[in-house]
Amino acid sequence: MKTLTFIICLFSLLQLSCTAQKKSNTLSLMDAKQNEHFSEITLTKQSRGSQESFKIQGEYIVYQNNNRTQKKELKTSDWNNLNDLVQKINLKKINSYESPTQNRFNDAAPSSEISILTDQKNTYTSKSFDFGNPPAELQELYHEIIRLTQDFQTKNKPSIPRRL
Question: How far apart are CA 34 and CA 88, in angstroms?
Answer without folding.
Answer: 9
